[in-house]
Amino acid sequence: xxxxxxxxxxxxxxxxxxxxxxxxxxxxxxxxxxxxxxxxxxxxxxxxxxxxxxxxxxxxxxxxxxxxxxxxxxxxxxxxxxxxxxxxxxxxxxxxxxxxxxxxxxxxxxxxxxxxxxxxxxxxxxxxxxxxxxxxxxxxxxxxxxxxxxxxxx
Length: 154
Fold this sequence. Notes:
The chain contains six helices and no strands. By secondary structure, the chain is an all-alpha fold. Helix 4 (80-90) runs antiparallel to helix 5. The longest helix is centred in the C-terminal third of the chain and has 32 residues, at 122-153.
């Protein structure tokens, strides 16, 4: 495995500690520090500090698995109520607003659960909320206008 700058600095810190404790002479310390900065792999660094008490933990045989730091983060589960809210919100137009109120209820419930559990789907819940409220407000406006027209003409 190739050595990083942080790996080299840790090796130099181990050498400094060894020098400070009197385990290395000045010339030996300087040579090892030069070799640390020239090292390309972690194995080379391990050899340079192996005889010192704060040396690195022995490296196991080469691992064929991908190191954990390079694995993708696990994707949190999407909240089912958030999906339902988005579907109800999208269906508001073809159902003439019939699914608006369920979209609002599911959206609020989903957002509460998402905050509590850390699940994914906040955007879906918000989409359902917005579309549900727009549908509900639109139908309330249409009904209000119809009532006003009926009162003024009748």
